[in-house]
Amino acid sequence: MSDISQSGPVLAADGTPLKRSLSRALRMQKMRALLLIAPLLLFILLTFILPVADMLYRSVDNRIVQDVLPRTVQALESWDPASNQLPEEAAFAALAADLKEAAEAKTHTKVAKRLNYENPGIASVFRKSGRKVKKWDIDADGPFRERLIELNKGWGDVELWKTIKTYSGIRTTGYFLNAVDMQLGADGAEMRPENERIYNTMLIRTMRMSLIITFSCILLGYPVAWLLANLPSSKANLLMILVLLPFWTSLLVRTSAWKILLQQQGVINDTLVWIGLVDDTNRLVLINNELGTIIAMTHILLPFMILPMYSVMQTINPTYMRAAKSMGATDWTAFWRVYFPQSVPGIGAGSILVFILAVGYYITPALVGGTKGTFISNLIAYHISTSGNWGLGAALGAILLAVVLVLYWVYDKIVGIDNVKLG
Amino acid sequence: MADASNVDAFVEFERVQKSYDGENLVVKDLNLTMPKGEFLTMLGPSGSGKTTCLMMLAGFETATHGDIRLDGTSINNIPPHKRGIGMVFQNYALFPHMTIAENLSFPLEVRKMGKSEREEKVKRALDMVEMGAFGGRRPSQLSGGQQQRIALARALVFEPELVLMDEPLGALDKQLREKMQFEITHLAHRLGITVVYVTHDQTEALTMSDRVAVFDDGRIQQIAPPDQLYESPENSFVAQFIGENNTLEGTVKEINNGIALVQLDDGELIDCKPVNVSRPGERTRVSIRPERVEYNKDRLQEGVHTLKAEVLEFIYMGDIFRTRLRVAGNDEFIIKTRNAPDQVRLQPGQQIEIGWLPEDCRALDA
């Protein structure tokens, strides 16, 4: 026994340190395990992690200005925008040279588009000038200051030059500032004018409506989950099929069905008018607003709430309720003090699932939300596929991701992720 | 039995029936009267209706027919939380999200008891089961035996007069179970509470109870103190169910002076005590306890009928010897003898003669 208590690493029978010989023994096993998950890992890396990383990078990427206008960026370094004076001739000459080169390579429209996000109107100045500048001889045709302003008086605007200088770095916070309704002004970041703010409103609306949807799901789903867990199995199976039925129907079909039900000439309004509860001239507006989105999304996300709650409730032994009653608790006290606290992990799991799904929902708000009931994801989709401002779309997506992660962290602090049970 | 005017009766079942599906009766015509302070065990195989009876008494099942009275008042329509009956469950049902002290405090809280009074009662109840130091723990941090004690304390903390226990020791190992059997009986007698205890373990029933009600097929087959139940079973189910038992089948030849002469199926004659037989010609099942069989000729009474037996197997069990014999065509005839210095050890193949006192051999229903 005494040789084991000696100082230093424990040795295996052949004299090598025990840790090394253990890791050698486990290496084969680890390699085999890694090999088994390698295809999936590769797939996820290529189709999910890399694109997400690329999108996140796009939200700060600003290399285009440096790449297309290298001389201009350099020439503007010595210019003080606060002076409110146009830059020197050197900057104009550099711009003319850059523009000629860019027009030949047809990249001037790209930089025009980029700068146009920050200062609408720049794009046309670049595009119109590009065609002409292409024919200039940079070495002979100077000075360019007057020629350029003559060509397009946009070049005589100090704001244009300020924009180029502000956004000349290879990284930018511009997209993120844009995404929270701010801009880079002379004194750094500032709020946009009241009438141009849109993204904060959308973000807050998305959060608020997702919360409402989550709570509606809890309220509607809890009794169903309870029934599922407590009915005899034959009836519970039937109920389970009813809960799962929506899963077997296309999301698009379900959303379209809600359109038919909710519209002003739709089934619900017709029925209410027929019963006499609602006046024919005064039909309820149930769609193309927040209410429509909430109704349709609550229905669509309900199974994601019911299933985790059900799987947790199934593990709650009915004798707990009996024990509580035998000790003198009324039905309500027994439920509230004994059953409900034990079902909280299920509510937590369902809520996280529903909330995260809701925050990123796209199809349903797009179809039944109108203008009042759309989500931030609809704006992201707009920037990715219609406006082409990928940087802003990426910034909005990154903010959404951050908000979800923060909420997840808060939930972990309050309820504890260990308490979440999905089965 | 089921007389409502019975002043001693604390718990009464009168003609109680229970059916779950409307086709089969789980409890058929149950009549039972318990005085205050009695420790009564309901014993029976699973599906015999004993747990259903307990649940009807607790109020979790309603009787299909009949009357259940507690202290003279009918409780058929009183919901469980108003019955004031303590209950210990098979899986203990300690609330996992509360500490031990909170668990014990729960029945007092729902009774709107003040905080200081609650704390004092919880402490006293914990001390009573010697778990005073565990108030701050969670049920999952306790061993099975400790959880059992807490469940007991929780059922007693609000001082009910009647406590129901549904196989409370089923999940414990043998040694702990025996220890807890003693603790529960001592506690019940010390506090003077009335206990209805359900189990399928006959040893538990015999060692703990004042009276045992043996259930089978939805009826009480016999209700008696443990010694009577063991020594004087009233029918062959009770004889079979309680303790080890040898059975021989035959026909009653004659009944004289309280002794029945039974002819076994292989023609041999034995003397029995008639219990469920009244006239010659009836089929009967004769029951003899293994420890009441005598094979030492010197100790056999003069003039009793003896049977020839062949030793098939001899098992040494330490304090006793267990010998398997072939008697009257029955290969499973067991005798038990004490390991005394003068005791003869039988050898397989040996031919012996066995006999017994006529009152130990009971002629029961066929």
How would you describe what is shown here?
The complex is a heterodimer of chains A (423) and B (366). Helices cover 68% and strands 2% of the residues of chain A. Chain A has 423 residues and is an all-alpha fold. A two-stranded antiparallel ribbon of chain A has the order 1-2. Chain A is built from 19 helices and two strands. In chain A, helix 3 (70-76) runs antiparallel to helix 4, helix 5 (108-118) packs antiparallel against helix 6 (122-133) and helix 14 crosses helix 16. Chain B has 366 residues and is of the alpha+beta class. Chain B has eight helices and 19 strands. In chain B, helix 2 (100-109) crosses helix 3 (115-128) and helix 2 runs parallel beside helix 4 (144-156). Residues 1-5 of chain B have low confidence and may be disordered. Chain A binds chain B through residues 317, 319-320, 322-331, 333-334, 337-338, 341-342, and chain B through 58-60, 79-87, 89-91, 93, 95-97, 106-107, 110-111, 154-155, 158, 164.
